[in-house]
Each structure stands twice: as structure tokens, then as C-alpha cells.
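Changelog excerpt

This revision adds worked examples to the README so contributors can see how folded entries look when concatenated. The first example is reproduced verbatim below.
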Amino acid sequence: MIKTIIKGFLIGAAKVIPGFSGSLLAMIFGVYEQTLNIIVNIRKITLKQLLFLFNLGFGIILGIVLFSMLVKFLLAKLYFPVMLLFIGMIISSVKVLFNETKNYLITFKGTSISLISIILVLGLDFIKSDSLITVNNYLYFPLGIVEALTTLIPGISGTSIYMIFDVYDVVLDFYANIFNVNNFINVIYFGLGLITGIYLVSKIILFFLEKYRLAVLTMIFGFMVGAIAILLKDTLLVNFNIWDVTMGLFLLLLGYKMVNHIFKLNA
């Protein structure tokens, strides 16, 4: 039980880190497909499976809330070095995906899939417009759907997509205040979007992972490479000094080593 809660906590923490995928970590921890199969066959759920989902979900929510507060504070105080820490973590995740897909990547199909994925992510960043996003209660429904999609598809970071469309701060504030009574309506809209997204795509995702696993992982590899480029570009556009650079390079390496160690422990 405690082990499941700890895994959930780390997955939840990963979900609020820009560019890092909680679902990829869930896959590494060996709980991703187990959870997805329970969701797909929810009508046949057992007491043991229900307890597993409760413990995992409790850990995820705890990780999301606590790390949202921490990330919000750190980004406000140390934006440049903290973003480099996140980028280092993403690079380590990309390396894991590369090692798993490298033989497929060198084929024409694999190269095409990864390039299209990279272009798609960069294109979304290019066409984004602040005028397209209106922050109100109804915004939380599509944000919930995005959260569902990026939770179900391992490797795709919801936070990266939020950053591309300039709503990351909105989501981070939402997570940090999720238990605030004044946030109740937003939680309802977000929850409805989350449930809708999970219901619509869980079976589809499971099918493609079973039938076209390498192609899916290659697509995810491309998404994450594109996310690194966008996050690096946005980070370098802010004001920084030599202290930020020194600290940032140290944290970049630390983030890389830290995630690499997590993957090795669960290999």
C-alpha cells in the first residue's frame, strides 16, 4: 500500500514539472498498463483493484498539490535555473525513449513519425496566441480533457502543452488551490473534462500501445524533443545573469542524473 502511494506521489509530482511525463513514470514504475486495464474494464473491478486505484490516486493528488506549491514558489524566485533543472529531467526521459526506439527511429517510418511530431509541437508553439485563450470557469473543461489525454499517453507532458498555450500558470495555481472552497466550480469543470477524456480515449490508447507500441513511443520521442526546444527557447528569452547560468547548469546536470537514477532503479 505504502509503495503504491509513494509511486503515485512521484507520478503526481512529475505531472506538474514542465515537459516531464507522469504517465511515462507510471510506465517505468509498472503501474500504467495495470491502471489502464482497470479503467477499460471498470465494470468488473474488484476490491483489490479499487484499493490499488485509491492508494495510487491519493499519492498522485498529494504529489500534484504539494509540488504545485513548490514549483510555483521556485519559478517566481529562480525561474532560469529551475527551468534548466526541468529541461535536464526531460533530456534524461528522452534518452530512455531513444534507447527503446533507436532501431525503429533509423527506419524511414520511424524518422518520419518523429519529425512530424517535432514539427507539430513547434507549430503549435508558433501559432499560439494569447487572444485565443480566455480564462474563465469553462476553460477548465478542455484543460481537464488535455490532462486526461496527456495522462493516458505516456511521454506527452500536459504541462508542456499548457506552457505552449500560455496557461501553465493558470493550471499551476489551480492545482495549488485544488482544495480551496472558492475553487469548487473550477474543480467540477476540470473533473468533468478529465472523466470525458479518460472515457473517450482509454480503449483507443490501450489498443495502439498493444498493436503499434514502437510507433507510439517514437511519436512521443518527437513530442518531447519539440518540448525541449520550446522550453529552452522560452527560458533563454528571460533576463539572467552569470549566477543564474552557473546554478542553472548545475541543476541541469542534477535533473538529468536524478531522473536517470530513477529509471535505473525501476529498470
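The second example, added in the same revision:
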Amino acid sequence: MVLNSVIKECDMPRNLDMVALRSFIAVADAGGVTRASGFLNLTQSAVSMQIKRLEDMLGVELLDRSGRQIALTAAGELLLGYARKMLSLNDEVMERLTRDPHEGEIILGVPHDIVYPVIPQVLQHFSRSFPRMKVTLVSSFTRVLKDQFSRGECDIILTTEAESDPGAETLAELPLVWVGAPGGSAWKSRPLRLAYEHNCIFRKGVQAALDQAGIPWQMAVESDSTRTIEASVSADLAVHTVLAGSEPPYVERIAHGGTLPELRRMKVNQYLAHPTHSPAVKELALMISRAYAARGGKGAVAAS
């Protein structure tokens, strides 16, 4: 009786952990546990434990940890193909048999100066289409957002920058414009008084343009707070630059008549994390792309 019990227990099928398989695929696609943990919204230790659980169950090492970067072993490469098929089938079943398969959280990072007018409209539309998906909007500077994205802390980010990194989709290309207080005169002062956040990506380029034009300048207002900059500019204490079409309230575009240098055009880029943890992430990115395209593509916001 005991022998029969042992035999039956040995013959019982063992089931692979789908959550662990999803973590394994994320590590393989992201090239490491750190980025994968960000994409999965899990801690690094949790992802590592799931990989270890798979290795213990299969009795093989899946990751080669001997080098500076994690690589797949031969067994890991073999498992990866099966894992993709299993998860694809799992997700297909869930999508077809559940009423609303899309739930979870998406982290969207957007520089503060381009949140309006596109993002609120997109989020409203997305919420109607995916009512059980939570979108957390992170508003910060391009440099900060790109750092967070590189660590896997954001699923999608928009940036304002002169060039595009590999994998970027350029949504718009807009000129920088000078802004000051309505009816103000700060733009006429020499040295020109500037107001910028410490992390503003436009700052160095504007200073270089002024130097090239032979216009003396000084940093009159520096802050980590965008509200402080806007208040200082609206009080006519200094001038600032923004992307055309994104002028904040209480300031206006300066009609300087060539007194100040023309500034370069900047790109609004979109970066999408790979791998994505939900088809809804790709759909949100597509909605953002379409919203910019509907506003006229590269000149969209500039014309508004």
C-alpha cells in the first residue's frame, strides 16, 4: 500500500509556475534582473527567487551568472521558446474567457511642460477602454524620466530632447520660444535675466545660443520647482523658454523682433519599455501616438 502510494506520487505531473515563467522571460528580454523587476513591478529579490524556483524544479541552471552581464545557459535558451508559447496561450485563454482581461498598473512618465493638452485627453479615452487598468502619471524632467526608464521604473515615457535614442518614436518636432510676463520688459534687460529649473534640459542650449549671439546673461532664478519658475517669470523678474504651444498660464510669448536669438527645434519622443507586462501598455502608447498625429504631426503643438 505504501509502495503504491510512493509510485503514484512519483508519477504525478509537475506544473511549471506561470508567474515564474513570466519573470524568466522578462529577465531574458531585459538583459538582467534589475530592469526586469521594474517592468514587472516586483522587487529584485522576488524575481531572483522565482528564477531560482524554476531552476530547482527543472534541476538545471537557466542563467549564466559568471560574467558581468547575465546570459542564458543552453537550458535557458531551450526553456525560453517553450515559455513564450505557454504564456502566449495562457494570455489568449484569459483574454477569450474573461470579460475584462486587462488589469494592473501602467507607469507613464511625462515632462511637466507637455502634459497638456494631449495627455489628459488620452488618459480619459484609455480609462473608458481599459477601466480596470490604473495609470500612474509621473511628471518630471526628461533626464530624470530617462533614468527611471533605464531602471525599468516606467512603462512609457515622453521626453523633450534635441535628438532621439535608439527605440524612440518622435511624435512632434517643435521650436523653443521665449516667454515672459504679459507686457513685461525683463527681456530687454542686459544682462538678460534667466529663470530655469536645475534639471531643465533646455537650459544649456539656451545659454549657448545667447553666448553665440553676444548677449550677456545671468541666472536670476534657479529652482527645482516649476511653479517657482513660472511665478518668477509672470512677475517679470526673468525670462524663460518653453516648447511652442505649451506656454503656461500667466506668461506670454515674447515678440522680441529678433532682439533675442532664435532657438533650435526640439523633439517630443516616446519610449516604450520592452518587454511590456500587458497589451494595454502598447495600446496606451498607440493612443498617445495617434493623439499627436491628430494634431498635425511634427508641427501639431506648435500651431496650437
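Reviewer comment on example two: The chain has three domains: 2-97, 104-169+267-299, 174-265. The first strand starts at residue 63 and ends at 64.
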